[in-house]
Amino acid sequence: MAETQRRPVPRNDGSELDTAMAFLSFSRQCVVKKTDGLTEEQLRRGLVESGTTLLGLVHHLALAERFWFGYHVAGRESDNPGDVGMQVPAGRSAGQVLADYDAAIAASDAAIRSVGDLGESVAIPVEGTFLSVRWVVAHMTSETARHAGHADILREQIDGTTGR
Question: Which letter, b or e, does each residue of 26-37 get, where b requires 16 or more Cβ atoms within 10 Å of its Cβ?
């Protein structure tokens, strides 16, 4: 099957921050790309036993962005969602979920860039440990990339579209 959504891997290698942000951004874009051109019903369609949906993945990642970058990195108590599940709240449209993810990404990027040095400690400890912002960026990059892979499979099941 032909890959129809393939994106090139970033070649950024100018600094630690630039490289880290390029790969985080790439992973985020891969997730969002999987939603392109789909209907509300397709985005909400559960095709695996767990009930995971493309829209649920995006919702989960928006919450995770706020939790890790807003709460832990920036220290904003209001960004601790408690539950970072994949269940999209009733009444939230696909457009709202996607816009919320865009807003969460913008806020996350601002939080990361305000710190500047990835070696700095988070504002709020992670399970009692003041990990580095570098750790949070690496964690969210891997989390997002993992879910991009899930999104690849779901999208292929929906309409045969493949790629990263």
Answer: bbbbbbbbbbee
User: Which phi-psi region, left, alpha or beta, contains residue 116 (left: φ > 0; alpha: ψ -120 to 50)?
Assistant: left
Q: Residue 3 corresponds to which amino acid?
A: E
Distance CA 140, CA 117 (A): 17
Q: What are the structure tokens assigned to 49, written together?
A: 């036993």
Contact present, 154 and 55 (Cβ < 8 Å): no
Q: Are 134 and 118 a contacting pair, CB within 8 Å?
A: yes
Give the model confidence (pLDDT) of 96-155 as tens digits. Answer: 999 999 999 999 999 999 998 999 999 999 999 999 999 999 999 999 999 999 999 999
> In degrees, to the nearest 5, what angle opens at C-alpha 103 toward C-alphas 100 and 106?
150
User: What's the whole-model pTM score?
Assistant: 0.93
Distance CA 160, CA 52 (A): 18
Neighbours of 87 (CB within 10 A): 11
